[in-house]
Amino acid sequence: xxxxxxxxxxxxxxxxxxxxxxxxxxxxDNALIHQQIQQKTAAIxxxxxxxxxxxxxxxxxxGEEQRTAxxxxxxxxxxxxxxxxxIGGHSVIGVLDSGKPGKSVAWRADIDAIPTAEGVGHxxxxxxxxxxxxxxxxxxxxxxxxxxxxxxxxxxxAEETYTGARAMxxxxxxxxxxxxxxxxxxxxxxxxxxxxxxxxxxxxxYRQVNLVFNNVVKPKATIALAKQSIASLQSVAKESPFWxxxxxxxxxxxxxxxxxIYQDYVVVENRFNVEQANGVLTVSGYVSASSEALMQTVxxxxxxxxxxxxxxxxxxxxxxxATQLTYSLQRGNINNAAHFTxxxxxxxxxxxxGSVLKLYGVIPDGRGDDFAYFQQHIPGTYFLxxxxxxxxxxxxxxxxxxxxxxxxxxxxxxxxFSSLLVERLHTH
Length: 428
Ligand SMILES: [Zn+2]
Ligand SMILES: [Zn+2]
Prior knowledge:
Layout: E1 2-3, H1 31-57, H2 66-79, E2 82-85, E3 92-97, E4 104-110, E5 114-116, E6 119-121, H3 126-141, E7 150-156, H4 164-170, H5 173-176, E8 181-191, E9 195-197, E10 200-201, E11 205-214, H6 219-231, E12 266-268, E13 273-277, E14 280-289, H7 292-308, H8 312-315, E15 324-329, E16 335-336, H9 338-352, E17 356-358, E18 367-368, H10 371-375, E19 380-388, H11 408-426
Parallel strand pairs: 4-7, 4-8, 8-19, 9-17
Antiparallel strand pairs: 1-18, 2-3, 3-7, 5-6, 9-19, 10-16, 11-14, 11-15, 12-14, 13-14
Helix pairs in contact: 1-3, 1-11, 2-3, 3-11, 9-11
One zinc ion (ZN) binds at residues 1, 110, 124, 126, 159, 186, 398.
């Protein structure tokens, strides 16, 4: 998870609202294989905890994941998977081919660590993601005779720098493997055992908007208008409960309620950059929008503001040097395919019931994951997997200095997502 601004998820236990209503038809399908998944996961749990502890003790920064990749490749090779390495950095891909015709369904784990006060640490939980994916590969390999098609386990480097997924795509990922669907998960501060997602944006799209003025006659007034224009994009009132991050998990207005206040918003950070050089003035602001459609209105609204301003004529000299609008921080944003996301939440709820939560709100704090670039080519879903145990003071807030994970999340994750992949292979 890449986090640009720092938000705080406050902790309120999620109540049982918005739990997925289970369609009765087909509820017994694959029941035996889901039972086998849970038995196998329980049998290898302590082995997986040891794998996680080893990765945890040897964190490697983005682009330097050599040891981690070696461990992953050795583990997948020992299982019997076909292993492809080093596409776009220290990536590892393990292919579990059932030998029978069918879909190809992929799962991604990110593997890099982050800089910390002590040096380098797994304070984003990617060691847990890696362990869960290795566990899934082992569990599902043991059930190979019951599978169809292919499962593809993708271990992606350099997520934290938002470069790894694109590098893999640029260097032939889609030629090496062609998944029909692609899924991933990230540890989140929710209680351990909960898994959640939504269709469309999960995080607000976050951009740096730059207004560039040429040949400025009145710089002070220009700066004031630019700031005011960007600030005016904000759609959330000052006194709104939106600003209290405790409300993200509120049962009636939080992310999990259909009438959540965390939808249909544009938010502007209260900070601007102003640069002046060689007669060119640039005023930058930081804008988040909860949907693609709303972000698309930003450009038009800013242009209108400037064009309609009483100072407009003095801002821009008529010399074909018009005011420009650019985006310098424009990145892929997690965008879950609606159909696949609905089906995935349903199929996990069918097996794991109340652990599965459907979200309606879009998280506003500037987070993102470069899995977004894979989603631009392959449909699927990015999930949040709760890792906290508040009773023990374990809070899985990514990038927090005291980031910690309840180890049981390894078992939850292997179970939920192994079941998910089986259901996806069997869904046509
Ligand atoms: Zn992360
Ligand atoms: Zn992170």
